[in-house]
Amino acid sequence: MDEPLVAARLRAAGCVFAEDEARLLVATAGSPEELDAMVERRADGLPLEQVLGWAEFCGLRIAVDPGVFVPRRRTEFLVQQAILLIRGDSTPPDPPGPLARGDSIPPDSPGPLIPPGTPARPQAVIVDLCCGAGAIGAALAAAVDRAEVHAVDIDPVAVRCARRNVPGYVHQGDLYQPLPTRLRGRIGILAANVPYVPTGEIGFLPPEARAHEPRVALDGGPDGLEVLRRVAAGAPDWLAPGGHLLIETSERQAPLAAAAFAASGLTVQVATSPDLNATVVIGTLTPS
Ligand SMILES: C[S@@+](CC[C@H](N)C(=O)[O-])C[C@H]1O[C@@H](n2cnc3c(N)ncnc32)[C@H](O)[C@@H]1O
C-alpha cells in the first residue's frame, strides 16, 4: 500500500488527519505486511501513538505500548513549569512548535522543547508520580543535569513501558508507597499527571481513550480529584523544604485542586497555557 492508498483507507475509517497519519505510518512500518497491519489497527480505532509504538513529547520519542495512556501534548506545559522552578527563574522556555491538533503527534517534530543540560542542584530528586509511559520523567531527565529520577505507576503494563523510557528508577505501586523511604523530605520536583476525569464524564471521552486507555488512567472519582487529593495530602512528607508539587488539572477543577494543596499546607499558584489548553496547579513546601 502506498501513502495515498493508506490515507484513503484511513479517511474512509474516519481519521480526520489521514494524510499526516499515513505519512507517519509509512515512515514507521518496517515492511509492507507491517504497514498493512498498522493501517488496519488504526482503522479499527486504536490511538495512532499505540499503533506507531511511540509518541512525540518535549522533542523526545516516548515508547507507548498498547493499553498504556498516550502522553498528551498539553502535559508538556507541566514539564515547562517544572523546568522553570528548577532553574529558579521566570524565563519561559521556548514554546513548542505549532501543533497539528490538540493531542496528536504533529507531522513535523518541533524539536527539543527544553534545551538539555538545565543545571540542577547537586542530587536534585525528581519524581514522576502516576507516570504512565514515563513521558514526564523522561523529559525532565533529559533536561536536567545530574537529577535522580524516580517514576511510579500502579499499572504493571505502564511500569513495563516506563522502564523503556525513564533513565532512572521505575517503581510499581500505589502513589508514594513504593518509593524508597530515603526520599522522604528530599524530593525537589514532584510531578504528577494523575487521572482526573470525573467518573460520570468518562462516557463522553473520545472512543480512542474510552476503548484503548485503561480506566485506572482516566477515572478520577466523582469530581475527578480523588487521586489528586491523595497526592496533595502526602506531598509534605516527601517534598524537600522549598520543593514543588505540580499536578495537571482541567481549568474547571483548578480552584478545588488549589484548595486541596492549601489544605496540605502548601503555598499554591495556578499556571495556565491557553495555547496548549493546559492548567497546572503548583504547590511549594515553604521552608519552616
Ligand atoms: C492520566 S495517566 C498519566 C500518565 C502520564 N503521567 C502521562 O502524562 O502520560 C494517569 C496514570 O496514573 C496511574 N495511576 C492511577 N492511579 C494510580 C495510583 N493510585 N498510584 C499510581 N499510579 C496510578 C495510571 O495507571 C496511569 O498510568
Provide tags for this entry.
single chain; 19% strand; seven-stranded mixed β-sheet; 11 helices; globular; alpha/beta; two-stranded antiparallel sheet; binds S-adenosylmethionine; 288 residues
Tell me what you see in this structure.
With 288 residues, the protein is an alpha/beta fold. The chain has eleven helices and nine strands. It has helices at residues 3-12, 18-28, 32-43, 48-52, 76-87, 135-143, 156-165, 207-212, 215-218, 226-238, 254-263; strands at 54-57, 60-63, 125-129, 148-153, 169-172, 187-192, 239-249, 267-273, 278-284. The strands form two sheets. It has a seven-stranded mixed beta sheet, with helices on both faces. Strands 1-2 form a two-stranded antiparallel ribbon. α5 (76-87) runs parallel beside α6 (135-143). The chain is globular and about 65 Å long. The protein starts with a helix and ends with a strand. 44% of the residues are buried. It binds S-adenosylmethionine. S-adenosylmethionine binds at residues 69, 71, 75, 130-133, 135-136, 152-155, 158, 174-175, 193-195, 216-217, 227.
